[in-house]
Amino acid sequence: MAAEPELLDELRRLRARVPQLTGALAAGVDGLVLAHDTPGVEPEVLAALTAAALGVAVRMADTTGRGDLRELLVRGAYGYVATYAAGDSAVLTLLAQDRVNVGRLHLEGRRSGARIGELVDALEAKAREARAREPKPAVPAPPKTPAKAPLRTPAKTPTVRTRSARGSATTNARTTTES
Question: Which of 2, 103, 107, 147 is deepest in the core (most CB within 10 A)?
Answer without folding.
Answer: 107
